[in-house]
Specification:
Length: about 110
């Protein structure tokens, strides 16, 4: 990319014609935020579990702020969720609630 380039994060809506247009349904964003906070709480608890290898713990540490921040871009958040879900799946039963929570958020992100 040459030159200054610009980036836009956030809502961008264009509606041309039609009827009954309602705009953006922000309820899903609230669900994502709430689900991410619940997942972050689970991650903090998992972080201290001896079943988590040091390398995996570092990945969790790196992913936690990205997942918890509403300002994180969706692609970054998606990568962090995939990493967390993968780690959770490898540590067995203790990781199952985290894998489920991460997959729930991934589903909400689309």
């Amino acid at each position: 990319m040459s030159g200054g380039g610009s980036y836009h994060y956030g809502d961008s809506v264009n509606m041309y014609g039609g009827s009954g247009n309602t705009g953006i349904d922000k309820r899903q964003m609230a669900d994502i935020g709430r689900s991410c906070r619940e997942l972050a709480d689970l991650l903090v608890a998992l972080r201290g579990d001896p079943a988590v290898a040091p390398a995996s713990a570092q990945v969790l540490d790196d992913a936690l702020p990205v997942i918890a921040s509403d300002a994180s871009p969706v692609p970054e958040r998606r990568r962090a969720l995939i990493a967390v879900a993968t780690i959770a799946a490898t540590i067995g039963a203790v990781g199952q609630p985290i894998a489920e929570a991460a997959n729930k958020v991934l589903g909400l992100l689309g």
